[in-house]
Write a structure and sequence with these properties.
By secondary structure, this protein is an alpha/beta fold. The chain has 3 domains: about 170 residues, Rossmann fold, CATH 3.40.50.300; about 180 residues, Orthogonal Bundle (Arc Repressor Mutant, subunit A); about 110 residues, Trna Endonuclease, Chain: A, domain 1 (3-Layer(aba) Sandwich). It has a 5-stranded parallel beta sheet with strand order 2-3-4-1-5, with helices on both faces. Strands 8-9-10-11-12 form a 5-stranded mixed beta sheet, sandwiched between helices. The longest helix is centred in the last third of the chain and has 31 residues. The mean pLDDT is about 95.
């Protein structure tokens, strides 16, 4: 198994949960945790690493989709019996008739020694057997919560995992929640051994998905990595996108078509409808629920202009994670090129469009980084960083910092992102920012102006803040 890298904060959070069990700091001895995150984000690898480092007995059970409930229960008890739990021998050969019996077998095997129990792909268990949730609640309340057990429920279906915690569901109020996100910029830089500017490119391409980042040999340039990855249709860079989509959005469905339209550059409701509807635009009654579902699954994000004036008419959609955005824009088509031995065609297409694509794709990463990097003593009340645009996207302001969103009480700063070329942010760029920002409701002549630039800034400009790639990287360290 490849060496584990990154995830320091996630491991600390898990350690804290285990420590609360060991120190009996809660009303109950046991502790339950619901762990969610997109497919292929590294949840299973993280919990395995945590279990291995804990030096406590543990059992990890991986559910199988569509399996007969009786077979799943037998395999669960078999996994418990084979684990290094204190009384595992007491449940060997058990054939549980329902999940109540299966989970009580876990309570028997655990004894009174601290241990970790991981149920991976819980949504599949819920799909298989309607009684699973109720049994989990009953056995947790009566047996497991009184034992020094850390129970981790893992799942990739974000909607269903959130539903487990809803009022009225059996397990409501019994578990903390932890969301596992892709590797951040500093983790990607550490694993690829790239300087800040190139590490940002690597993050845009890999999305921070661990299996793809691990395939990036340390020190390879963007061009070298793409050349190696596109040479094989089985490379993680090409394969992960299709596997992710097939797991949630089979080809041929409207949801997949809508996602592909957004991934290839359509941002408005009207343009998405026109792109996906064939001879006529996709009806609003069909498209709106699909967009709602994709947003709930955190596959896409709906952005609104940030200012002191409400504006719901200029909503813009984008693919939430950079890797899937890159895959839809370039790699989906590149698979066929790779299979017929012509990766050079895909490389050429990426090369022609890379600068423009990166200029738009980097904006969310920069906003996230700024949210961490802003000095507390300059804009202490800034809690929202977005952008502003009108219906014609002219003007369009890259950065707006405010006290809240999407309707701000106060706009604290406006800014420009200069990422398309290596020319420093200069007087012309500053003057344009001043002119364009006057259209943003809530700004005045005294509103602070900032810049984020790949190549620095011309001396003497009255900017209130400047961030280079190294500054963005620093926001994620420590």
């Amino acid at each position: 198994m490849p060496a584990f890298s990154g995830r320091a904060r996630d491991l600390r959070l898990l350690d804290a949960q285990l420590e609360s069990v060991l120190q009996h700091k809660l009303a109950t001895r046991g502790r339950a945790l619901i762990m969610t995150g997109r497919r292929r984000v590294g949840k299973s690898r993280l919990v395995q690493e945590f279990c291995d480092r804990s030096e406590h007995p543990y059992v990890v059970f991986q559910a199988s989709r569509g399996r007969a409930p009786a077979a799943e229960r037998r395999d669960f008890v078999h996994a418990v019996a084979c684990a290094a739990l204190p009384h595992a021998e007491l449940v060997r050969g058990t054939h549980p008739q329902d999940w109540n019996e299966a989970l009580r077998a876990l309570a028997t095997a655990a004894g009174d020694r601290p241990c970790i129990v991981v149920l991976d792909e819980v949504p599949w268990l819920v799909e298989q057997d309607r009684e699973f949730e109720g049994s989990l609640q009953t056995v947790w309340d009566r047996f497991l919560s009184d034992k020094p057990i850390l129970l981790i429920l893992v799942g990739s279906d974000l909607t269903m995992m959130e539903a487990l915690q809803e009022y009225g569901r059996p397990f409501f109020g019994r578990a903390a929640r932890m969301t596992i996100r892709p590797l951040h910029l500093a983790d990607v830089a550490e694993m690829t051994r790239l300087p800040a500017e190139e590490a940002i490119d690597a993050l845009l391409i890999t999305g921070g998905f661990p299996e793809i980042v691990r395939s990036w040999e340390p020190g390879l340039s963007r061009e070298e990595f793409l050349s190696e990855s596109l040479d094989s249709p089985l490379s993680p860079l090409l394969a992960a996108g299709e596997l992710t989509l097939l797991g949630e959005f089979p080809a041929g469905g409207h949801a997949r078509t809508v996602l592909e339209a957004i991934g290839t550059g359509e941002r408005t409701f009207a343009n998405i409808a026109a792109r996906t509807g064939g001879d006529a635009p996709l009806p609003s009654g069909t498209l709106a629920p699909i967009l709602t579902t994709l947003t709930a699954k955190q596959v896409i994000t709906a952005d609104l202009p940030l200012s002191t004036k409400p504006d719901t008419k200029n909503k813009r959609y984008r693919v939430a994670d950079p890797y899937l955005r890159f895959w839809l824009a370039f790699l989906q088509r590149a698979i066929a090129d790779s299979e017929r031995g012509r990766p050079d065609l895909a490389l050429r297409r990426i090369g022609k469009s890379w600068t423009a694509w990166r200029g738009r794709a980097v904006e969310p990463i920069i906003r996230q980084s700024l949210a961490r990097a802003l000095p507390d003593d300059t804009w202490p009340d800034t809690e929202e960083i977005g952008g502003w645009w009108n219906r014609r996207n002219n003007p369009e302001i890259d950065l707006v910092g405010a006290d809240k969103g999407p309707v701000a009480g106060h706009v604290h700063f406006v800014g420009s992102i200069k990422w398309l070329d290596n020319r420093p942010f200069d007087r012309h760029d500053y003057d344009q920012l001043v002119r364009d920002s006057a259209f943003v409701p809530g700004t005045t002549a005294a509103t602070a102006r900032i810049a984020v630039s790949r190549a620095g800034v011309e001396a003497g400009l009255p900017l209130s803040g400047l961030w280079r790639p190294e500054d963005l990287m620093a926001a994620w360290t420590g």
